[in-house]
Specification:
single chain, 289 residues, mainly alpha, two-stranded antiparallel sheet, 2 strands, 1% strand, ABC transporter permease subunit, membrane, transmembrane, transmembrane helix
Length: 289
């Protein structure tokens, strides 16, 4: 009996999987889900479809002697390197938050619904480590999706709309290298904002076995934030609303770069990430196996 007890005590350490193997396994599992592959493919097409739409509108406007509508979409005409920024701003309104919410829902609630969460909790892996692996999977795939949208947007923009630089909203033109740097900065800013919503969704996912509830709650947070920010009498809530940071993303194509606004948005998102992850961790450490 003593030998069995010692064996049971030593067994978890002996079978403890390396962190790298766990992370690779999680990524493979996430990327092999059919709905994930479909979602990634559809999001990769968003910049291409947007570019084709702007190209058709610009061609029709040129034939009729009119100009393309003002705004960011109008600025993209003949300014192809702005297309990835435009596509990411459009995607951040709903498609990318939906992606983050779905990934977070599958990470915990989906495992619980399929019955595999109990097995994972009984495995020789600490619960904090398990949550970190799940969060890593959500964060990495989110970054991959945003970067893929930027890549397809850049290629489509150059081919369909042309341009060897980036004309900013300030009227200046950035050279190719700096323009690519602005695109990369947009990728990072948008990714951090999606991570913030995904962290909230991960917290909800830790408390339920129904992935659909996670998606509904996460999108509800987005919709509610948008509604509250549109009410002038409630503008005092703007500093704590998640979507407040999203409105500042287009500022990335101003010259000079408004670092104060962008930094404030990143810090706001970081607060949501810390709060969401902390709530998820608290639930993971206290839930029954």
């Amino acid at each position: 009996m003593t030998a069995m007890t010692l064996g049971e005590i030593q067994r978890p350490d002996a079978r403890r999987a390396p962190l790298g193997r766990l992370l690779r396994s999680e990524l493979r599992m996430v990327l092999r889900r059919p709905r994930t592959l479909i979602l990634v493919g559809l999001l990769a097409l968003v910049p291409v479809i947007a570019g084709i739409g702007i190209w058709i509108a610009a061609d029709a406007s040129a034939n009729s002697g009119n100009s393309v509508d003002e705004g960011l979409a109008g600025l993209v005409d003949g300014n192809g390197l702005l297309l990835p920024v435009f596509a990411l701003v459009i995607g951040l309104n709903m498609l990318l938050p939906l992606t983050g919410a779905m990934l977070a829902a599958d990470a915990l609630a989906g495992e619980a619904a399929s019955g595999t969460m109990r097995t994972l909790l009984l495995a020789p892996v600490s619960r904090s480590r398990l949550l970190a692996v799940k969060a890593f999977g959500v964060a990495t795939v989110t970054l991959f999706v945003v970067a893929l949208m930027a890549f397809t947007g850049t290629i489509a923009g150059v081919i369909l709309l042309g341009g060897d630089g980036m004309m900013t909203m300030s009227g200046t033109t950035l050279p190719l290298g700096e323009a690519l740097g602005r695109i990369l900065l947009t990728v990072l800013l948008v990714t951090v904002q999606v991570w913030a919503l995904a962290a909230v969704a991960l917290a909800v996912s830790a408390w339920t076995e129904h992935p659909l509830i996670v998606v509904v709650v996460a999108l509800g947070v987005v919709i509610l934030s948008g509604v509250l920010s549109a009410i002038p009498a409630l503008d005092w809530l703007d500093p704590v609303l998640m979507t407040t940071s999203w409105m500042g993303i287009p500022e990335v194509i101003r010259d000079p770069l408004p670092t104060g606004t962008l930094t404030e948005g990143v810090l706001r998102a970081a607060c949501y990430i810390v709060i969401g992850y902390s709530l998820a961790l608290s639930r993971m450490l206290s839930r029954d196996g």
